[in-house]
Amino acid sequence: MGEWLFGALLLLLGIVATAQAQEPSSEPEVASPPAVVAAPSPAPERTETTPPVASSAPAVRSPAVPIVTPIDSRGVASRTAPAGPEAPASSTIPQMLPPPPSAPPLDLRTPEAWLSWQSINHIPALPVESRVFHRRGLDALHSGQVAEGIRLIRASAALDPGFVSPHARLARWYLYREPSQALHELGVLTHLLRHSFQLQFDVIANALFGLLHALFFGFLASGVVLVVVHERELRHMWEERLARVISPFTARVWTWVLLALPLLLGFGIATPVLLYLGMLWTQFKGRERVIPIGLALMVALAPLAGRVTGLLALPLRDDSPPFLGVMTLEHETFTPARLAGVRRLSERHPDNPFVSFGLGWVARRGGDFSSAEAAYRLTLRSNPEDDRATNNLANLLAIRGDSNGALELYRRAIAIQPENAAAYFNMGQVHTRRFDYHSANEAYSRAAALDFDLVQTYQSASRDGSLPLADQWIKPGSAWKAMLTPDAREHTSAQLPPAWRGLREARGPFTSLLGVVVFGLGITLSMLWHKRLPLRACSNCDAVICRRCAVRRRELALCPDCANAEVRAESPEFARVLLNQRRRTVQRTYRGVRTGLAGLLPGYGFFAFRRVFLGFSFATAAVMLIALSLGVREPFDAEPTFGLVGMAGGGELALGWILLYALGVMAFISRQSRLDAQSEVAPVRGRVATISRIHADAA
């Protein structure tokens, strides 16, 4: 009896197991894309010649067709379900649209929840949330919460891989702590810079502005220091002429008044400095004349700076061709209002390839695939050799199921640009959908050889069966060429950076012409006065004297003070003692003044010894440090904290000032000590040379 019961139980279990095996699975398995190197075993060939038949029953996703997620190569994906009209399928693979993502987290305090939601929904970038966490990370660093700040900044970089500010901040943080990690962050920055026109524009435009800023203020600071170095010659010119009609003391006072008057009348700084440098023209030697010439050129060309910066501002303006504000669309989050605005802009400028490309980009982000396809076709009508628009159009065909048309466009994009890694990768994705794993593996291999990071990023998003397609933004080279066209230069208007708007020297051609005329007037006066009363140094104390005030003693020319000291002496030997004593006193005072000025004015010590290039370099470095200390920002900021201001903090600025002053003072002391040693040895060398000549004559 027990054996019969046991047999009946086994029979019942077998029937139940057979019934379960015959039931269809409610969760079909999703196909995964092949790896880059080793292709998976091929599945049985499948042909679908008819589109799926519509029925009233709920549709069940076919297990053989993976999901295609429309995202771009940088990583901005729409968070809403596709809202645009759908084009009919025209190939053997049915149209598949991405499912809407789940609801985002509501807590902005923990980035881990956002990173998890981003990974689950295959959203490569969250620009808004990334910048929120980046700002919170900076606030944490400023408040002393170092670990929390670094954690939030790292999360910001992960939420938006194209956001450069977190990488710049991390590179600065690790520079003194972990140099290898700093090099890694700098490598990421370099990679982003190579593929982003907006970042290239930010760096190049700010570098050009920084060069103009450094040259102008560097020459101006060098001119001021040069005037301070030669202030004795400048004062003596006026004192001698005023002393003809007034007393010497009054002439000395009025000399200071006349020299300060141009500065007090509101002519700025550059124009009076040009006047002083022109009056000192005959006193300059060798390379010293480079400074006044350079400053005069910078003042003369100052009105052109507005034209240059205006041309550089074209990608940021929405009212001037050829870009019309389109270049800022790459990193913007999709909004229906923005799509409507770009559509109206495209209607007004149908022949502008940048506008039509921007319309296709925004429409794709919003799920309006038919409008995006029409916009990309319009772009290719204006520029048939645009491989990136061709690649993006092929992605749209692949999304609506036209794999044959997509593959043809991918091949065309590769023919235009053989190094287009995104086209190779997208071709591999489409071949995977068609179960052509051999062709897919070959396409993946070529894409990985061209851009391994792109393949790695998108294949990591394909682990659950989704096959993302890589869109491409406008090629940086095309944008740079468009900026140099006559049409772009025609619509350029002068745009002064904020740092220059308060400068009188940059207000227009009249101010520049005034500076040049004043400089020429100063040179004319210098030549005329030097011809009548040439200046020279006292033979004893190196004081500035001229033909009228000099006292001749045989072949020597003494200043009035040295001449009075010699007259008071009762014998030639005592006169020599008094002259030596006065020389040491004057040189000691002059050396103390020069040492103090060398410690206060960067570059003064080099100009005092006529080292013009080193003096100009130190003065320019001081100007840049002052600009950073005052918070002068770059006028072309793609990101709010990217650039010199974002990279330089209080510690770096303090270190820069310390190094600048230390090197300047040490160089001045070294050259002054060398000069003193030469002056001490000079009399001995003179006596040795005289004795040598006597012996030579006797022989």
Could you walk me through the main structural features you see in this protein, from its secondary elements to its overall organization?
- By secondary structure, the protein is mainly alpha-helical.
- It has five domains: 126-160 and 162-195, Serine Threonine Protein Phosphatase 5, Tetratricopeptide repeat, CATH 1.25.40; 199-313 and 495-534 and 609-634, no CATH class; 319-490, Tetratricopeptide repeat domain (Serine Threonine Protein Phosphatase 5, Tetratricopeptide repeat); 535-600, no CATH class; 649-699.
- The protein is built from 29 helices and six strands.
- The chain has helices spanning 2-22, 111-120, 127-142, 146-159, 164-174, 179-195, 197-229, 231-242, 248-264, 270-279, 290-300, 302-312, 336-348, 353-366, 369-382, 387-399, 403-416, 421-433, 437-450, 452-460, 476-483, 486-490, 509-532, 560-568, 572-600, 604-608, 612-629, 644-647, 650-698; strands at residues 70-72, 469-471, 536-537, 544-545, 551-553, 556-558.
- It has a two-stranded parallel ribbon with strand order 1-2.
- It is elongated and about 115 Å long.
Low-confidence stretches: 1-96, 640-648, 684-699
**Count of alpha/pi helices:** 29
- In order across it, which strands form the biggest sheet? 1-2
Rg over CA atoms, rounded to whole Å, is 38 Å
What distance separates the N and C termini?
150 Å
Question: What count of structural domains?
Answer: 5
Structure class: mainly alpha
Looking at the structure, what is the overall shape?
elongated
Q: Proportion of β residues?
A: under 5%
Q: Approximately how much helix is present in the residues?
A: 55-70%
The counted number of beta strands is 6
Largest sheet properties: 2 strands, parallel
Instruction: Report mean pLDDT, rounded to a whole number.
Output: 75
Biased composition (Low complexity): 24-40
Protein name: Tetratricopeptide repeat protein
TPR repeats: 387-420, 421-454
InterPro entries: O-mannosyl-transferase_TMTC, TPR-like_helical_dom_sf, TPR_rpt
